[in-house]
Design brief:
- With 59 residues, the chain is of the alpha+beta class.
- The chain has one domain.
- 25% of the residues lie in helices and 37% in strands.
- It has a four-stranded mixed beta sheet, with helices on one face.
């Protein structure tokens, strides 16, 4: 079972749901925030290739 812990995106209007959403302004920030959260949350960052990354905890 896997759980989405967070979403990092360039465009807030493309995402929704129950996970925390972090909105950034630049592609560079998308990578930085995602990889920082990956370490903090002990999760895996997955790039959806549309300006959005999800942080997933795989169990």
């Amino acid at each position: 079972m896997s759980q989405i812990l967070a979403v990092v995106t360039l465009t807030k209007d493309r995402v929704g749901g129950g996970a925390p959403i972090f909105v950034v302004e630049q592609e560079d920030d998308l990578q930085k925030v995602s990889f920082s959260l990956e370490k903090i949350l002990d999760a895996n960052a997955h790039d959806l290739k549309n300006g959005t990354m999800i942080l997933v905890k795989h169990t």
